[in-house]
Amino acid sequence: MIAYLSGVVREIREHSAVIVAGGVGYEVQCPSSTLGKLTAGETAELNTRFVVREDAQLLFGFHDADSVRIFDLLTSVSGVGPKLALALLSAMPVSALAAGVLGGDVKLLSSVSGVGKKTAERLVLELQGKVPEHLAAPAAGAGGVKAARVTTTAGRDAVDALLALGFREAQVRATVAELLAAEPDLNADQLIRRSLGRLR
């Protein structure tokens, strides 16, 4: 088991990053929230999960322990593999995802690409009582999953523009909300540019 990786970011790709450690370049699959925190040429420290399949050996990396915890829980559900778990983590913050599962929000979960209604229902059914409530605490304090709601004019304009480009609504709203939470004064153009960097 490879549980942790520290090294220099050599390259950031659409869904992964290449981390050089000990002279070896590791391709690490990461959610968009983690990729957004990486910078080429700088050192990165990631919590990791190593998945071995018949046709591949895959390394998944996360910038925080909560993401790893949710990833482990998601992949424990029948029919949910690591790549689908990664898609869920890329679509919304951990707090919104945890709150969605705890609140039985099938509509939210099934809005993620690759997650059908039956899979969303299975996530809710199998993870009830398993997802720690503290993981949903940041969202719950602001009204559960509604913490991902965008209320500023700039935020709404950015969401509309990104939706017009074909991105999924849940992922767009979560990304814009996360950016605004960190920097409330960002204008629509800044939000769109930064969101594109995370969504692509």
Automatic annotation (TrEMBL):
Positions of the Helix-hairpin-helix DNA-binding motif class domain: 72-91, 107-126
Domain remark in the UniProt entry: Has three domains with a flexible linker between the domains II and III and assumes an 'L' shape. Domain III is highly mobile and contacts RuvB.
Keywords: Cytoplasm, DNA damage, DNA recombination, DNA repair, DNA-binding
BP GO annotations: DNA recombination; DNA repair
Localization, UniProt: Cytoplasm
Protein name stated in the entry: Holliday junction branch migration complex subunit RuvA
Biological function: The RuvA-RuvB-RuvC complex processes Holliday junction (HJ) DNA during genetic recombination and DNA repair, while the RuvA-RuvB complex plays an important role in the rescue of blocked DNA replication forks via replication fork reversal (RFR). RuvA specifically binds to HJ cruciform DNA, conferring on it an open structure. The RuvB hexamer acts as an ATP-dependent pump, pulling dsDNA into and through the RuvAB complex. HJ branch migration allows RuvC to scan DNA until it finds its consensus sequence, where it cleaves and resolves the cruciform DNA.
Highest taxon, organism lineage: Bacteria
Quaternary structure (record): Homotetramer. Forms an RuvA(8)-RuvB(12)-Holliday junction (HJ) complex. HJ DNA is sandwiched between 2 RuvA tetramers; dsDNA enters through RuvA and exits via RuvB. An RuvB hexamer assembles on each DNA strand where it exits the tetramer. Each RuvB hexamer is contacted by two RuvA subunits (via domain III) on 2 adjacent RuvB subunits; this complex drives branch migration. In the full resolvosome a probable DNA-RuvA(4)-RuvB(12)-RuvC(2) complex forms which resolves the HJ.
Any one of the GO CC terms: Holliday junction resolvase complex
Organism: Deinococcus indicus
Region (Domain II): 64-141
Residue ranges of the region described as Domain III: 150-200
HAMAP family (alphabetical): DNA_HJ_migration_RuvA (MF_00031)
Pfam family membership, one: HHH_5
Gene Ontology molecular function: ATP binding; four-way junction DNA binding; four-way junction helicase activity
